[in-house]
Amino acid sequence: MKKLLLPLFFILFCISAFSQTQNEIRLYYGFTGSDLFTEDNLDGAASYDIENTYEFGFRYLLDVTDNIALETGLNYWRGEVLITSAPMPGQTTRTEELQTTSIPIFANFRFLDYFFANGGPVMDFQGSESESVDPQAGIGVGFGLGAQYAFNKFSVFINPNFRRYAVIPFEEESNHQKLTSFGVQLGLGYKF
Q1: Beta bridge mates, 78
Q2: What angle do CA 33, 68, 191 make, to 5 degrees?
Q3: pLDDT at 166 over 50
Q4: Separation between Cα atoms, residue 157 and residue 144, nearest integer Å
Q5: In angstroms, rounded to a whole number, what is the distance separating the alpha carbons of residues 74 and 84?
Q6: Predicted structure pTM score
């Protein structure tokens, strides 16, 4: 009888624990300032400027405690890379599109009723092929500090954040370019 009651008690405890958890879905749009960085500066190499960047996506938050949630979702980032050849006669300029799709695995910590910090590893996948920019697919990192205001089951939030793509790239290049961005996400959440 004891062998039967212990698993039954454990199952009932798990069900009651998960029935009290809150889930939240968030949709957002973001503006970013982005750049490509390398470990070493190369003299005589082309220059890269990233323009017209934006991001959007959704996040799913699962409360673990009153102040901590697991945060995951899907993020799409897009930008145009302006590539200017090394200074020489007949200097050329061209533009390439760069796109990434990312899956964050963040911890989200809420404090002082209206603020939160989030961060952790991010799995990045490059959605566009580029002749001149190193692949940005890999494991990156991200973190942010934001504010939110909840009313009924809805919330609005702003999340300034930092992202570094391909910290551990899937395809390593010598002097690998790594996309780095500072952004601000604005969004709407719904708790259920």
Answers
A1: 54, 99
A2: 80
A3: yes
A4: 12
A5: 32
A6: 0.82
